[in-house]
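Appendix B. One record, verbatim.
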Amino acid sequence: MTAAVITPERYARSAIVLHWLLALLLGFQLALGWRLEGIAKGLGQFQAYQLHKSIGIAILLLSLVRLGVRLVKPRPPEAEGPAALRWLARVTHWALYGVMIGGPLTGWAVVSTAKVKLQTMLFGVVPWPSLPLGQGWHDPAAGLHSLLGPLLAGLVLLHVGGALKHHLAGDGILARMMPASVQGRSALTLRAALALAGLGGAMALAALWPFGNAATPPTAQQSAAPVVPSAVLPTSEPSETPSAAASEAASDTASAAPSEAAHEAAAAWAVEPGGRLGFRADYSGSAVEGSFHKWNADIVFSADDLEHSRIRVAVDLASADTADATRDEMLRSDSFFDVAAHPKAVFTANSIHQHGHGYVANGTLSLHGHDRPLALPFTLTIDGNRATASGSARLNRTDFGVGGGEWASTDQIGDGVSISFSLKAKRR
């Protein structure tokens, strides 16, 4: 004699918790996926992709747990109705599992086989490894991953539509995925409305999430820096203090300061929005230009008090933008800037002297874990409490270890990189 199989009226508590948690994460992930390409390139887009990957892995792990619960825990019987609708419900449920697991897996494969190896940090804390796949997997994984997003949206609509149909029919199917404390049709209707509001809220949160540089990038301006002889660009190893020649030059020329700032002690200046910090490199004989969207400067300056003038500029390297997403991702990877380990570049200059009709700031550039001397020539115009400055310099990327592995050679990417800036500032 065969024992009767007892089926519960509701799903297990663990299944209920996982179901609604996954619903919120899927709503957030769908909206974030639609938004990704519209986020301005730079730090904001980098943060958005890292969060997208983090949520994806979370969905993968929770979906595997949910599948395990489904296979182990007893569940309510299949809803009654026409055979075609019951078949559609089964297909939708299993397709949802396939997409919830396949979506993150294909995304993981895309990241693992990308030419640019950028460490995935789950929620900025936990490093996540790459899959041991060859480069040949990249394009198929990317193509499938792009198809699973619209498929997921369609399956979610089918699933939600079916649940609402059952609720309107009053057959109690929706109650099976609610806690036992939810009793009565009015309470169930309220919970269903809250669930839909939660799904919409999760999607709205992803659409409004304030990523690092989601705002409009600064307006580009042309630099008008003077041409300075290469003799003023030091190439020796860095030292803790300015060179004797630089100090002597500053002493000799401080008295020749422009009349606009005469007889004033060094004062702090606040950089105004709209400035530009750009760079230019050579790739296979063609110029590649870009800029950093996020940087700040601490400036204390007076032409009459160069001895106490100083400049410090900090640059968020993840905000590099060359108008090419793949190239920008490459710059952020450990093959170039390695922003996970070295997120900022810092230029510090405590020795500023006059040179011709402009100035030269002698200091140290800290980049990619290396400190090297850098002379930054610039022109300056001061009108009352407002100033306009622009300048440029040239450095060698290999001096800072930027460009490792196959990119260490200068055959494809030239060693020399030009840096330029233009800004407006107001005396504090």
